[in-house]
Design goal:
The complex is a heterodimer of chains A (59) and B (479).
Chain A: H1 2-30, H2 33-36
Chain B: H1 29-40, H2 42-45, H3 50-55, H4 57-82, H5 91-98, H6 101-136, H7 146-162, H8 164-189, H9 200-203, H10 213-224, H11 244-273, H12 276-279, H13 289-297, H14 300-334, H15 353-369, H16 372-400, H17 417-457
Helix pairs in contact in B: 1-8, 1-11, 1-14, 4-10, 4-11, 4-16, 4-17, 5-6, 5-16, 6-7, 6-14, 6-15, 6-16, 6-17, 7-14, 7-15, 8-11, 8-14, 10-17, 11-13, 13-14, 14-15, 16-17
Classes of the chains: A mainly alpha (59), B mainly alpha (479).
């Protein structure tokens, strides 16, 4: 039984790897680099209250 | 694919500053808990017991609780800072905003190495567990562990590639099972009963109490970290939680409480069932001490439950490590600390897919080609360097942005006592590590010095300095 399970593990590993590589290729050829790398560190929804400095000024 | 409008201004995750596709905000506090506890809980199932070998059962308990204090400080400090700096990258992003670029680069590398090495260590362990299962079910020939090591890494990387919600929901289920397995073993052992098989009095008296004296206690500190190593990983989910200010402190603090309970129960159960000489030998003795304790009960049900608990804890840890290492690598790419190519987000799955794929072969190389103890030591030392940064970070954070200037999701109490305590405990742990792994410590510090020089004199010229600071914060005090 265990030799079959070993073979199954090899096959599954290959399938997961191939799926990722295939999807990676498809994504990189479908979208522009500008879109894919457009993510920027952003504001935080829960913390969007205006921070109030001492002296009353908003930032 | 065509039904996805990646330029939508209303879709969740579409951030400011020209972001067309970003990470998805779908996680809640339970996922944060699962990420933190999931990475760590394998340390209860195996690894911590080397502390028993270094100094005996009581030394392991002292190390467990000292490390518990250290990590409670880590969790409190992290909860405050990350509820404010809620972006992927965790401590890397904190360092970038609060300390400076060189510290951020180093912290980013600590994170990636700590998690990738831990992932490799988990995969090696998983291969070993499968081979034990094969032996127990009557396999006639030695099992080839490699396909199972590779499968674990490939499957979990694939899961991470496909989306963070499924990944951390999976982690939540298997982590909860592994934690409940410890509770079940404790209650099944019935320590309050006269018929209990636990034999603390016999196993911990006389010379067995502190076999190497107080030096043994110091030496045990290194492995005391193992009970909690990785809880700080919750911060990597910061850009993907729905409510960072609430979920991150809640998930992180619930996580450290869970671990304190799990660590103490684990110690209590194991030292009550197993003699310290056997328990402390994690290579030829109790490789998986909770599983060995379950075997001592003679209950088939407990053996099966703890067997699956060990397996799930290992999987959960590797899964969380892939999640965290990829977020740290992605953030460094996004900020140009590394090639920007790594800062890409998958437009459909909304994951840092290139960072996830890039780290797969690195994890495989270490999992298939390096000895477990070296892999684990490299992970621990990288983590320890990260913990040393945290007190400096929070002291600077409070000084530059006092409580009345930035609204925090959580304010940690008794500042600066936790920071000072953390520095002191890190110092003790450095000494303990130096006693056992001095060469590795020096080699690793040398490595980080070399890459720091590379970053300072070469890489930093590519960083767009104005673009990396996007938090809507006031100017720091004194600037």
């Amino acid at each position: 039984m265990w030799p079959m399970i070993e073979t199954g593990a090899w096959v599954l590993s290959a399938l997961f790897a191939l799926h990722m590589v295939w999807d990676w290729y498809r994504t990189d050829t479908t979208y522009s680099e500008d879109v894919l790398t457009s993510s920027r560190e952003g504001e935080i929804e829960a913390m969007t209250e205006q921070h109030r400095l001492e002296g009353g000024g908003n930032v | 694919m065509s039904d996805i409008d990646i330029t939508s201004k209303t879709m969740d995750g579409m951030g400011p500053h020209g972001t067309k596709v970003g990470l998805l905000r779908v996680l809640g506090p339970a996922h944060v808990w699962a990420l933190g506890v999931g990475i760590v809980l394998v340390g209860e199932y195996m690894g911590w017991n080397f502390a028993v070998g270094k100094g005996g059962a009581y030394a392991a308990l002292i190390a467990c609780w000292f490390a518990g204090i250290l990590y409670s400080c880590v969790a409190m400090i992290d909860s405050e800072v990350t509820s404010t700096v809620a972006a992927a990258g965790g401590q890397y992003t904190q360092a970038k905003h609060i300390v400076g670029p060189l510290m951020a680069f180093n912290v980013g590398l600590y994170l990636v190495f700590a998690y990738t090495m831990l992932e490799a260590g988990n995969a090696i362990t998983l291969g070993y567990l499968i081979s034990v299962a094969a032996d127990m079910t009557g396999a006639t020939e030695p099992l080839d562990q490699r396909p199972f090591i590779i499968l674990a890494i490939m499957f979990l990387a694939w899961l991470n590639y496909r989306g963070v919600l499924a990944t951390l929901t999976f982690n939540l289920i298997i982590t909860a099972f592994a934690f409940c397995a410890i509770l079940i073993l404790f209650f099944a052992s019935a320590p309050w009963s006269d018929t209990s098989l636990l034999a603390h009095a016999d196993l911990m008296s006389g010379q067995a109490a502190l076999p190497y004296g107080w030096l043994g206690v110091l030496a045990a500190m290194h492995f005391g970290l193992w009970f909690y190593l990785g809880i700080e990983g919750t911060t990597q989910a910061a850009e993907e939680v729905r409510s960072p200010a609430r979920s991150l402190p809640f998930g992180t603090l619930a996580g450290i409480m869970t671990l304190l309970i799990a660590a103490t129960l684990t110690w209590y159960i194991c030292v009550g069932y197993l003699p310290w000489e056997y328990l402390g030998d994690g290579v030829n003795g109790a490789v998986a001490p909770l599983f060995s304790a379950a075997q001592m009960t003679g209950s088939d049900a407990l053996i099966v439950i703890l067997g699956f608990g060990t397996l799930f804890a290992t999987l959960a840890s590797a899964n969380g490590c892939i999640n965290d290492a990829s977020r740290a690598w992605f953030s460094m790419g996004r900020d140009h600390y590394l090639p920007q190519w790594f800062g890409a987000v998958h437009p459909q799955y909304r994951t840092p897919y290139r960072a996830i794929i890039f780290l797969v072969p690195i994890a495989l190389i270490f999992a298939l080609g390096a000895p477990l103890d070296q892999v684990i030591t490299f992970s621990i030392l990288s983590g320890l360097l990260g913990y040393t940064f945290m007190p400096i970070n929070v002291i600077l954070f409070r000084r530059k942005w006092p409580l009345d200037t930035i609204k925090r999701g959580y304010e940690h109490p008794f500042h600066p006592i936790p920071a000072i305590l953390l520095i002191a405990l890190c110092s003790v742990t450095y000494f303990a590590v130096f006693l056992g792994y001095g060469t590795q410590l020096i080699a690793m510090v040398s490595f980080y010095i070399v890459v720091s020089l590379w970053f300072h004199f070469w890489r930093y010229r590519f960083v767009k300095r104005a673009d990396q600071f996007t938090m809507p914060w006031p100017k720091p005090r004194g600037y």
